[in-house]
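Anyone able to model this chain together with zinc ion?
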Amino acid sequence: MVPGMHLEFVGAAQTVTGSMHLLRTKHATVLLDCGLYQGKRQESFERNRHLPLPIDEITTVVLSHAHIDHSGALPLLVKNGYDGPIYATPATRDLCAVMLRDAAAIQDSDARFLNRHAEKEGRSETVEPLYDDEDVIEAVSRFFSVPYHHAAPIAPGVKLTFLDAGHVLGSAITVLDVEEDGVHRRIVFTGDLGRNDRPILRDPEVPDKVDVLITESTYGDRLHDGTEKMEEDLARVINRTYQRGGKLLIPSFALERAQEVIFAIKKLRGAGKVPAMKVYVDSPLTVKITDVFKLHPECYDAETRAMMRSHNSPFEFDNLRYVDDVETSKFIDQEQEPSIIISASGMCEAGRILHHLKSAIEDQKNTIMIVGYQAQHTLGRRLVEQRPRVRIFGVERDRRAEVVVLNGFSAHADQKDLVQYAERCREKGPMRQIALVHGDPKPQKILAELLGSKKGAKVAMPVTGDQLTIE
Ligand SMILES: [Zn+2]
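re: yes, here you go
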């Protein structure tokens, strides 16, 4: 046991949102990720407003990747007085500069919504947005970029190295080499772990000599479809919709999912497997994020790098148009010819996708293709459930459009990947302890049994506030 060295689990403990973990040593307190809790509007607002962190004690912050449930509370941390550095990969920094500003705009509209609601109920109290654009600018100015595979001293006795996590652009596995009283421990946090053989990104890297592995466990109880099946399914859906003369709507998360879909369509088209119908990417955030992708070829796999070298961008092809302005966004619904529209938000709760759904949902020629996780109580979930009627902009509408769900696009490791990853770490030993985070209790329990059934490390499933002493 290393006296005094321990982990404390603050968020994403037996849940999949609000990632926040603390590493405490005698000389430093390192915060791993600082994510927003995402759930129902009122509940999320209350939980996020009171950051459950000892801000004065935090020496340094390390960010695994740009997703808002990992990065979205950073502006709040800075607003509440944190004035130290925030370490991230260069691509994560650039993505955060775009995504946190978008998050600030959502905070603003959420606060307005809650205030209108309070007014209707005759309550006088109002809420302020959690943070604004200025807070985001301040937070982003604290970022220090550390490229993959460069060891950087980040706090007394703590050295950081990022490895590729293969989850989204810039995503990193955080490797911390910690020295205390002559004892060395290597503590590794997977962040969100990607999958092998995915388009665009490299496979997750495996560190050696891990003492403690903090691993995500989102899909500890599930297996995903492979990339090939996903592309075949996508081709079938595109062809079917084209033959009906309809539109294919793809509600998509702006980071990674949208770019993967664009790339998959490009490949299918290049192979002559789908017709050259028009494709619109209609989401200002997705457009900005795709621009960040173009700036970071250092994150690509060999196939994508080779394409870039021959001036064949994975994110461009004939008849593909990125839409920024509202006029064009409205125009594409009125077009008669078949087309594909990729738009945000991914769960169909806000944004331009709602306008496209409104105009497309009642026509059986059209298809809505769901490519991401849909939380309960969202319009996306109701579509997945194939409900015959759904409410859009407060009006009940018949759903005549076909709804197709493709599961192969997930950016998270599945059960087999998670077990294999832990095994590969264990082979490079010594791996004394494993802590499961970022997962619901059921998948965690199943995964813990699988990991624990092999000899070696102890497996913990910490709840919020739990501490784990480093052995
Ligand atoms: Zn993520």
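DSSP finds 14 helices and 22 strands in the chain.
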